[in-house]
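This follows on from our talk about sequence and fold. Go ahead and set the record down below:
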Amino acid sequence: MYSLRARGCDVVESLWIFDVFARETLLFAGVGLLIGGIDDLLIDLVFLVRRLLYGHRPRLTLATLPPRRVVGRIAVFVAAWDEVAVIGGMLSTAIERYEHDDYRIYVGVYPNDKATIDAAAAVAERDPRIRLVIGPRNGPTTKADCLNTLWRALRRDDARDARPTKAIVLHDAEDVVHPQELRVVDSLIDRYEVVQLPVLPLVNRGARLVSGHYADEFAESHAKQIIVRTALGAGMPLAGTGCAIAPEVLAMVAQARGGDPFDATSVTEDYELGLRLAELGARGIFARVATDDVGGVVAVRAYFPGTIDASVRQKTRWMTGIALAGWDRTGWAPPRAVADHWMRMRDRRAPLGVIVLAVAYLAMPAWALAILLHWQAGAAIPYPPSQPTGFVLLVANAALLAWRLAMRMIFTGRSYGLREALWSLPRFLVGNVVALLAAPRAVIVYIGMLRGAPLVWDKTRHDFPDVMAGAETLPTGRPQTAAVVVAVAIAVAVR
């Protein structure tokens, strides 16, 4: 068999272009991953310091929830386009589960979506608390446009009844509501203009890797990141579901925009609305209200996409609306709002992060192949990690990755138990793959938006769980389970 060693220096000289490629991609990826890793580490450190300083404070629970000060009706907005598969189950479940004495569910539908209209109307006929609102335009438009239709219907109803609504709660058509959700809103909306409840995605056992990576991401986002964000005084973006807003502040936004509070030209109206309300001085709270002593919280449950294609479509919309178009639309915070600047930078780092990730995935096999070729030629490797800088980057990024995986396991285990904590390791890779596929599509969509392409509701197909079979039950992380998760996570970090 012919050996590269036989050619000696000629082979090494012919590999110089490949050497440069491997070296530069490794250094670029190493520096980029280091910056992103330190950014994430700072969030973790702020969270841990906050827990150390304030962890002794009693948790807000259903038992310690302040009594409501003002009695009033709560309106629940549900925007629905092509939701025939879930809207009936969602509405029926909400009616059965809500434990509140005064609410009305407004369902926004489109005149050219007869299937969804029929499914919603079938439930509305059985319960007068469901208000079906058919918009003036054929769909799909945008979710914000549909919400504006519901806003106008609510204003007409309030004027007719001479009875103002106390709070507006936003929900998606696939959500499983918590029985005590409206009680929490009724109490806290007296003290805050904006209330956001946690979102804890359901893990589809038939699509554990794809659907489960949403559970991992939200477990960290809604148990750590958003807590750090609000603790630092930065604006709280809304999740678009499980959030309650005082009608008075929505009316202020509507007046500033010429009549409608939700921006129909945005694909992530929830994110932008949260920042806008914060700029107006609205007081917001991220409400993790405990239901028991073993980790349960009042939260929104729902199945998220379970296929790569559907997940890529959803992440494309998020990346387009937050990191690309959102940058143009929301700009930056006031000059002295350092925390807000930091958080908005984190919101917008996704496209650059994907580039770094793609280069890293390209650099690793290039490095391995280069090692093999140089070994065959009997030559030394003239680039990282054999050089000091490359070695330091490799060790630092390996340590940061171990820490990141440990944190992911801890927070997933805290909300979902040990089994899902272990599954979060392979799902970390799945999340990276989805991001890599969504990024170029987001750029294409964004370029189309800049060129005046019409916005449409690029929604994904939803599933509704079998609530009667207990599919929506949250497997809470009990203390002994959490301890095991921490031990496993520490072991991963040490290794």
